[in-house]
């Protein structure tokens, strides 16, 4: 690469940072204010959002999953919907349904909660497989089809689903087809001592501290951010590295189903988002590795420690390109 080309790339990167960095910083501040002491989790949530993925929280109750989902919906100025998943929940309770209007003598469509910018599917594994499948099309294609008519969802449609890893009574395991539609699976975990003390202090008074409902970016700004992330450069050498890692999951003796092509595309897009959050317009192997556990854990069976060990084995089994041109075009 010539010196002139390097200079041009640096100028483009600086201009991009100037344009998008204020929105990124505003989102960071809003989410970190809602969930104290979880900066690393927030970075992964932002990467998932910017990659236009969907997020599965596999964690205990009371750790801030709902609070984070609401804060995210408010931050992007979008509509927030929550579905409390139970065994008696019907698919139409999520997607909506047609009703006959006696006055107009025509059918009218009543939108379900899926028509939102951010949808929280709380305890998703307590819904029956039939109801879980109502989200398949919505998550993959951002549309729903009711009575042979397809209706588009917002461009910023983002699903945050939760499940409790401890309780299994009355729960239905998510099918592989649905898990593959999530970009990540995350655990929030308990906050550190200082953060919990800060939380206690903030909630002393006549009323509990209400979370901010102020939007920091518009859905249109978010869409532009997502479009920019999609254009972050992935050099051929990094693409080869990603493919080698995917192949390693398919050949691993402890992995029943290796990474699918859709999962590989998701991994690349999340790595692009991670690079953007780090202030770069190109992906490096560190970006791929930083999001590996979050991306692969939703596609691998086993508890967190087992999956973490397998992901480390997969990464260790593939040589990392160290003297390569990572800035090249895809």
Features:
helicase, 2 domains, 330 residues, 9 strands, helicase activity, Rossmann fold, globular, two-stranded antiparallel sheet, ATP binding
Description:
- Residues 51-192 form the AAA+ ATPase domain.
- This is Holliday junction DNA helicase RuvB.
- Keywords: ATP-binding, Helicase, Hydrolase, Nucleotide-binding.
- By secondary structure, the chain is of the alpha/beta class.
- It has two domains: 20-202 and 217-228, P-loop containing nucleotide triphosphate hydrolases (Rossmann fold); 231-330, Magnesium chelatase subunit I, C-Terminal domain (Helicase, Ruva Protein, domain 3).
- The chain is 46% helix and 13% strand.
- The chain is built from 14 helices and nine strands.
- The strands form three sheets. Strands 2-5-8-1-9 form a five-stranded parallel beta sheet. Strands 3-4 form a two-stranded antiparallel ribbon. Strands 6-7 form a two-stranded antiparallel ribbon.
- Helix 1 packs across helix 2 (39-50).
- The longest helix has 32 residues, at 3-34.
- It is globular and about 70 Å long.
- The chain starts with a helix and ends in a 14-residue tail after the last helix.
- Mean pLDDT is 85; it is low at 1-16.
What do the pLDDT scores average to?
Answer: 85
Oligomer: single chain
**Tally of helical runs:** 14
Shape: globular
Give me the Rg, rounded.
21 Å
Binned, the helix content reads: 40-55%
The spatial strand order of the largest sheet comes to 2-5-8-1-9
Count of domains: 2
Strand tally: 9
For the record, the CATH architecture of the largest domain stands as 3-Layer(aba) Sandwich
CATH domain fold name of the largest domain: Rossmann fold
* Sheet having the most strands: 5 strands, parallel
Order of helices and strands: HHEHEHEEEHHEEEHEHHHHHHH
- Any low-confidence stretches, pLDDT <50, length ≥5? 1-16
GO molecular function, one term: ATP binding
InterPro entries: AAA+_ATPase (IPR003593), ATPase_AAA-3 (IPR011703), CbbQ/NirQ/NorQ/GpvN (IPR050764), ChlI/MoxR_AAA_lid (IPR041628), P-loop_NTPase (IPR027417)
Keywords: ATP-binding, Helicase, Hydrolase, Nucleotide-binding
Protein name: Holliday junction DNA helicase RuvB
């Amino acid at each position: 690469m010539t010196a002139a080309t390097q200079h041009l790339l640096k100028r483009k990167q600086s201009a991009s940072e100037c344009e998008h960095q204020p929105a990124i910083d505003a989102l960071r501040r809003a989410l970190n204010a809602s969930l104290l002491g979880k900066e690393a989790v927030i970075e992964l949530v932002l990467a998932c959002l910017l990659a236009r993925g969907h997020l599965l929280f596999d964690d205990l109750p009371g750790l801030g999953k709902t609070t984070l989902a609401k804060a995210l919906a408010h931050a992007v100025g979008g509509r927030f919907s929550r579905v409390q998943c139970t065994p008696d929940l019907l698919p139409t309770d999520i997607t909506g349904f047609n009703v006959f209007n006696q006055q107009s003598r025509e059918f009218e469509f009543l939108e379900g909660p899926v028509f939102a910018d951010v949808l929280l599917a709380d305890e998703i594994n307590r819904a029956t497989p039939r109801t879980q499948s109502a989200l398949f099309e919505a998550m993959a294609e951002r549309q729903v089809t009711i009575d042979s008519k397809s209706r588009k969802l917002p461009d910023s449609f983002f699903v945050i689903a939760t499940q409790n890893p401890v309780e299994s009574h009355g729960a239905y395991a998510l099918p592989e087809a649905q898990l593959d539609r999530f970009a990540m699976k995350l655990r929030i975990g308990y906050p550190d001592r200082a953060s919990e003390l800060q939380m206690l202090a903030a909630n002393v008074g006549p009323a509990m501290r209400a979370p901010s409902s102020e939007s920091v970016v518009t859905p249109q700004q978010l869409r532009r951010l997502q479009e920019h992330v999609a254009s972050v450069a992935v050099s051929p050498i990094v693409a080869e590295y990603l493919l080698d890692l995917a192949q390693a999951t398919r050949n691993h003796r402890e992995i029943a189903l290796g990474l699918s092509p859709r999962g590989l595309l998701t991994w690349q897009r999340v790595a692009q988002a991670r690079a953007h959050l780090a202030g770069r317009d190109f992906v490096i192997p560190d970006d791929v590795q930083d999001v590996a556990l979050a991306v692969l854990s939703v596609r691998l069976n086993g508890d967190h420690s087992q999956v973490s060990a397998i992901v480390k084995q997969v990464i260790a089994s593939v040589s990392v390109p160290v003297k390569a041109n990572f800035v090249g075009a895809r």
